[in-house]
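User: Please predict the structure of the protein below. I'd like the answer in C-alpha cell form so I can feed it into my own downstream comparison script.

Assistant: Understood. Taking the following sequence of 432 residues as input:
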Amino acid sequence: MICENLSVSSDGILLFGGANTVDMIKKYGSPLYLMDERRLRHNCRVYVDSMKKYFGDDALPLYASKANSFKQIYRIVASEGMGTDVVSSGELYTAKSAGFPLEKAYFHSNNKTDADIEYAIDCGIGYFVADNEEEICAIDHFAVKKGITQKILIRLTPGIDPHTYEAVATGKVDSKFGSAIVTGEAERVTKIALSKKNIELCGFHCHVGSQVFDSDVYLAAAEIMLSFVADMKKNYGFETKQLNLGGGYGVRYTEKDPVIDIAENIKLVAETLKKLCEKLDIDLPAIRMEPGRSIVADAGLTLYTAGSVKRIPEYKNYVSVDGGMPDNPRYALYQSSYTVLLANKMNEKSDFLCSVVGRCCESGDILQENVYLPSSVTRGDIVAVLTTGAYNYSMASNYNRIPRLPTIMVNGNEDYVAVRRESFEDITRNDM
C-alpha cells in the first residue's frame, strides 16, 4: 500500500484510517471524500516537531490553505500549533469563521485587489506576502488609512527550476509570482518597502514549486535567498527577521513515487542554512515553510460507485463512476497519476486493464488511464482513488450541475461530517 493508513480486512474490504470504506458509502452515500484525522494530525506534527527541533522554537510551519480549505481543517492545524497561508479573501474568511488565530496567517497571491487588502487588514491578518511594488504601495495606503503598521514579507523569485510539472514551477525568473533577484528588481522593491512608514518589512519569501522529492532545490534556493539577506544587511542595515522557504515536499500518488523522510530533509536544510548564515556572517532568521499537499494528500481518499462497465474487444475498456472531473480535475488539467483500487474486492486479482472515467458529458472527463482492476468489476462495486486529500475538494466545481461531494472525517472508531453534501438547492441558490 502506498499510504500507511491503508489496510485490507479479512473479507477483502479496503480500510482507510481503520474505517471500512464500504460501510462509509452505505452510511453517507456515494460519491464522497474521506479524510483520516489521525493521519492529518500526524503530518502536522512531523513539520511542527522537526522544524522546532532543527531550526529552533521560533520556526513555524504554515498550512497552505489552497490544498484543501474548509473550517475543520483550520481547527485541526491550529490545534497542532501550525500557522496558515491563504491566497484569497474566501480562504481568509473560512479561516476566520473557524476561529483560526489570524496573527499566524499569511496572505499570498500575485494580485490582491484593494478589497482583499482592506478586508484582510480589517480581519487582523498577521502578514501580507507582498508580490510587487504596486501591492506594497496599496498595503501602505490602507495601513495609513486605518492608522496601523502592517507586517509584510516580500516574495522573491530565486531563479530555481525545480524539475517538476511546468504548471507548478513557481521559482523561475520569468514566473508571474514575485520579484526576481537576478534582475535587481528584488532589491529595488525591498528599498521601497523600507521607505514606507506604515509597513514593517519582516523578511522574504520564495516558493520553488511543488512535488519536490529531495532537498536539493531547497538548498539551492536557500543559498540564493540568504545571500540576498546578507546583501540587504550590508546595503541598508536591514536585519531579516523571517525567511519563508515555501512548500513543496512531494507525496506518493503511485508505487513509483519515492518515499520521503520529511524530518530528515528538514534536518538537512537546517544544517545547511546554519552553515550558510555563519559563512555570510548573518543571524539565522525565523524559518517558515508552507506544506499543503504533504499535510492533507495521503489523509484523503475518494470513494465512488461503479456504473457502466464498457468492454470493447481488442480496443479498450471503460469503468464509469458516479463522480469525475468536477470532484477531481487534476488528470484533465495535467494528467496527474493516481492509484485506483476496487475497495470491495481487494482480495481479487487485478487483471482487467481499463480507463476509469467520470459521468460528465465531456470526453476529457477521465480520472485515470491504464488502471488494473479485478475482471469481475461490475455496476455497484466501490472504486477508491487514493491520495486525494489535496487539490480535489479545493478545485471541485459544479460542472454539469453536479453537486459537490461531502467530506467525511474518520478518527479511529468515530466518523463525522466535516463538509456536508451539496444539494440541488445549493447549486441554484444564487440563481435569479
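That's the full C-alpha cell string. Residues 162-171 have pLDDT under 50 and may be disordered.
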